[in-house]
Design goal:
- About 15% of the residues lie in helices and about 50% in strands.
- The chain has about 550 residues and is of the alpha+beta class.
- Strands 9, 10, 11, 12, 13, 14, 15, 16 and 17 form a 9-stranded antiparallel beta sheet that branches.
- Strand 25 (about 440-445) and strand 26 form a beta hairpin.
- The relative contact order is 0.04.
């Protein structure tokens, strides 16, 4: 019996010891967890940080006549620290005056809170190194401080103001015309009308001049005056910098300008502390016929560099242009032929225009958002009485045209006088020869009957967009590929009254990559000269033979 009692007491003691160990382990774990929580960094929100800092600053004040009442946070781009602008008020002679200071906080610790003024710009200058710029409103002064977190304690030293910090102080960095009622806007600004300023009057072109708000109204900065130049067709907001004798800077910041054909809008922007750009966007209606309306937009971007004295230097200009066409579709013209006309132009002292007989295509009738037409007739007509001057051949390959390419078309007359008689002739594509060279026919103007007649003598191939004419040497030049990387050039030497003096022909042959040039001259259909291997001293590169051959011909003609 005693034996069993002893065993029972031993078991109870063991259980008690185990419970004590478990309780000890639990308490230890809880203590360790509490320590970890205490070591964990407490991240405050901006509102909590501002609240705590204001409470600390106000508790440190030695008088009840002062109080810090608000704060704003400013961070560098890499969030390496926090700058807090503190705003306070104090009583002075029955009034209130405002004071400002800046606090620097890193990792939840206040490095300093005694920097005078408010931070408005932060530049990173190195690893854990920054330059901050402050403005002290009490004396309207600007300061810069270098902060180095690599040093212990953190180094904060007054520094040289190197950057163009005025950019950060600009109340307005983008300029765009936003005046809704022009007459009212300037009527209520009669007191800002500028009179008797000879320098401004010199560039106003008769416009009324109104002084606007200063671009940057600070005693410490260059005076940056802006003015409105106003007349019946334009309002231009300009940045004017001048001395006593001349205008130093004249840049249009915003506005608009109208003339009979287009309207131009101006806008601009300070991109950063060294780059400024202006925009000119012009829109003009280029077509307004029954069948098509078209607008062209031209944009010019001017780039400038500028410094902290706001001295501007133009650096580059980019130009862009595009047209937007709005074709007109008339269901009543389905399955009928109708006419569209080009814009008038002058050719051979005649005011003329092209008249196209067209029909909507089946594709257009099914979906008229993009109006395509097929052309069945192309007539050159006189504007004054619509009489027909000439019926032009149609392209050998029939294809549909967007109606915007024909209606109100701006036809540019080529300087093409193939027979050198002083009259403009017309070239037209005629098809392809056996070597798949595009061939062109020439329609020569006949002043006696005032029309154009095809002249087969001048029909021939060309590797260019039309037959080439060499005015200096009074020559007509035909170029062609003859296959197997060989080429030919035919030259008509022209005399007076459209007569052909003689014809010269050059052509190449090659055998085992040996290239030879042959020459033949004919007069009145009789061969008067013939030379084989006329360029035997020339070394040809087969990979670029075409360009070398044509260049050699050009140099030979010019001799």
């Amino acid at each position: 019996m005693k034996k069993y009692s002893f065993v029972l007491v031993f078991i109870i003691a063991a259980i008690a010891c185990k419970n004590d160990d478990d309780k000890k382990t639990t308490l230890t774990t809880a203590a360790d967890s509490l320590k970890l929580q205490q070591k964990k960094e407490i991240v405050l929100t901006d509102e909590e940080l501002i609240k705590n800092l204001l409470r600390t600053k106000n508790n440190a004040l030695t008088t009840s006549d002062s109080v810090f009442y608000k704060a704003h946070i400013k961070r560098p781009l890499d969030s390496g620290f926090v700058a807090v602008n503190l705003y306070g008020k104090e009583k002075q002679q029955n009034g209130l005056s405002e004071f400002k200071s800046t606090a620097i906080i890193k990792n939840g610790k206040t490095i300093t809170s005694r920097i005078e003024g408010s931070v408005f710009r932060i530049d990173k200058t190195g690893e854990k190194q920054y330059k901050i710029y402050t403005h002290d409103a009490s004396n309207n002064s600007f300061s810069a401080f270098d902060i180095n977190f690599n040093e212990s304690p953190t180094s904060i030293r007054k520094a040289t103001r190197t950057a163009n910090f005025y950019f950060d102080l600009l109340p307005k960095k983008k300029f765009q015309y936003e005046i809704k009622d022009k007459e009212k806007f300037f009527t209520i600004r009669k007191d800002r009308l500028v009179n008797n300023d000879s320098l401004l009057n010199r560039i106003s072109n008769g416009a009324s001049i109104y002084k606007s708000n200063g671009l940057l109204d600070l005693q410490d900065a260059t005076a940056l005056n802006t003015f409105y130049f106003v007349d019946s067709t334009s309002v231009l907001e300009k940045l004017i910098i001048k001395d006593n004798s001349k205008i130093l800077t004249n840049i249009t910041l915003s506005g608009f300008k109208k003339d009979s054909s287009k309207i131009t809008h101006f806008k601009s922007a300070f991109v950063n502390d060294s780059i400024f750009k202006t925009f000119e966007i012009s829109e003009a209606q280029t077509k307004n016929s029954k069948h098509v309306v078209e607008y062209q937009t031209d944009s010019v971007v001017h780039w400038f560099t500028y410094n902290k004295h706001f001295q501007f230097k133009p650096t580059a200009s980019d130009r862009f242009s595009f047209r937007k066409t709005y074709p007109q579709y008339y269901p009543n013209l389905i399955d009928s032929t109708f006419y569209v006309y080009s814009k008038p132009f002058e050719i051979n002292k005649t005011n003329a225009q092209w008249r196209y007989a067209v029909r909507y295509t089946r594709k257009t009738n099914a979906d008229p958002t993009n109006v395509e037409v097929s052309v069945s007739e192309r007539m050159l007509t006189a504007v004054k009485d619509s009489s027909i001057i000439f019926e032009a051949p149609l392209s050998p390959i029939k294809k549909p045209f967007n109606i915007g390419e024909l209606s109100d078309q701006e036809y540019k007359v080529q300087n093409f006088d193939i027979n050198f008689d002083g009259h403009t002739d017309l070239p037209f594509p005629e098809g392809y020869d056996l070597n798949r060279n595009a061939t062109y026919a020439a329609y020569v103007y006949n002043p006696k009957i005032k029309t154009y007649l095809k002249n087969d003598v001048f029909t021939g191939p060309s590797l260019a967009k039309h037959v080439l004419i060499d005015k200096d040497n009074r020559s007509v030049i035909y170029t062609a590929s003859t296959g197997n990387n060989n080429y030919s050039v035919r030259i008509l030497k022209m005399g007076d009254n459209g007569t052909i003096l003689h014809k010269e022909t050059y052509w190449s042959t090659n055998n085992d990559d040996k290239i030879e040039i042959h020459y033949q001259k004919t007069k009145n259909n009789a061969v008067v000269e013939k030379i084989d291997n006329v360029a035997k001293d020339k070394n040809w590169d087969p990979s670029d033979f075409k360009n070398q051959f044509l260049k050699w011909i050009k140099e030979r003609i010019s001799k």
